[in-house]
Write a structure and sequence with these properties.
DJ-1/PfpI; two-stranded antiparallel sheet; globular; seven-stranded mixed sheet; DJ-1/PfpI family protein; 188 residues; alpha/beta; INH-QAR; EC 4.2.1.-
Length: 188
């Protein structure tokens, strides 16, 4: 089972690295659970994050495996992505083939712009919840939740909430006991 974390220009560092730490600690420490995690970007080239950290993805869209779980982070770059019809179409395509779509921070804005959150509960960074409602007034915005699990879509609030969402993923995909092991290992 493959978990993919999307990288793009202007992605928020902790939106990527927080979930990565949790998921990589789990998948590398417990390969018997059957999951692996990787990063990817549209073209497979390094991306510059919101605060100038440079990350090199392991895959491009073209050579990435089929994702069972997709993590769409947020950050300054989502301001472009919510208007990028090619990216929104790609997100819709992922929705059709990926069992579990997750977002961190303003990644939920991209999901909303793509129509994935219609009539669903969701959250985002506290500064953007009004824009989330603007993008789709049918969304039941849960401003105070660290993450919202609505079955096949999970949205996390801002930045550090991605860590909580990733721990929840371990609990949901493996077990609460495994999540507790991972939390202890990363001292979270």
């Amino acid at each position: 089972m493959n978990i993919g974390i999307l990288l793009f220009e202007g992605v928020e560092e902790l939106d990527v690295v927080g979930p990565w730490e949790v998921l990589a600690a789990w998948t590398r420490g417990h390969p018997e659970d059957g999951y692996q995690v990787a990063t990817f970007s549209r073209d497979g080239k390094p991306v510059t994050c919101a605060k100038d950290m440079v990350l090199t993805p392991q895959h491009s869209f073209a050579d990435a495996p089929a994702w069972d779980v997709l993590v769409h982070p947020g950050g300054e770059g989502t301001e472009v992505l919510v208007k990028d019809e090619e990216h929104l179409e790609w997100v819709r395509g992922q929705r059709a083939t990926t069992g579990l779509m997750t977002s961190v921070c303003t990644g939920s804005l991209v999901f909303a712009a793509a129509g994935l959150l219609e009539g669903r509960p969701a959250t985002s960074h506290w500064e953007t919840v009004e824009f989330l409602e603007f993008l789709d007034p049918t969304i039941e915005v849960r401003e105070d939740d660290r993450f919202v699990d609505d079955g096949d879509v999970i949205t996390a609030a801002g930045v550090s909430a991605g860590i909580d969402m990733a721990v929840h993923l371990v609990s949901r995909l493996a077990s609460p006991e495994r999540a507790a092991e991972v939390k202890r290992y990363i001292q979270y």
